[in-house]
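Lecture 7 notes: from sequence to structure.

We start with a single chain of 280 residues. Read the sequence below before looking at the structure.
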Amino acid sequence: MNRVPAEIGPLTPHLYVPTPLRPVRAKVHHLSTDQRVVPHQHPWAQLAFSTTGVIRLTVDHGTYLVPASRALWVPAGVEHAVTVIEDATLMTLYLHQPRSRSGPAGVPRADQAAWRTCRVLEVSDLLRSLVLAMDTAADGAALDDEALKRERLLATLVQDELRRARALRLGVALPRDKRLRALCEAVLDDPARHRRLEDWARDSGASARTVARLFREQLGVSFGQWRQQVFLARALSLATQGRPMAQIAGALGYASPSAFTAMVRRTVGQPPRRFFAAAA
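Now the structure, written as tokens:
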């Protein structure tokens, strides 16, 4: 039986408000599987990644699985929620955003449009080291001149590395229809629970025909095509943790690794190992 995620409030963002003096603030939280941070927003940008474990960050239009090798940029004012897929150490950066500008400091105005939407970024070894070196004390803790100078130097390097980070086309689209969205989120929580659309539709209280129509109208794909994207996103997050192919296939409900391999080949035209190696 699936456990209902325990909902918790926003993770003390008011204690880490970025300012022109301290333009990048870092904080760390340890979260347990099946915890969920309720939807919230704030007037500064955020970069979220897990140094261990896997989180799922959901916004209005889609959801993103974020393993340790990836980070998610969330622009200022965008409502988001966090679900813990695997016990995780969540590292968060808050970035000051001057009025009418978006993205890390130094991004040319012509390039800022890309930073006004959520984007998945690679986390380089340098970026990871810089973030881990930043002070994570909350407001109220004394920060002397030398510590403040060091934080500002690290912040400059962090933002330079963010500007250079490669954006990745990862994520799963979500519909606006409340009934269909509830079904999609149930699939995301446990993609192997059912194999047939009829069973998922029954859980949602709608007919399979209605659900199929809504998928076409709101997401432009069939349920099967959408669920394959869910499988690929989950498989990729497991692969980045070094999980063997048989274990990944089993976690997604496939009776054998060969059946999983066939699905990946049909979907992306490559065997899993090549696809995962290219994505990583």
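The chain has nine helices and ten strands. Keep this in mind for problem set 3.
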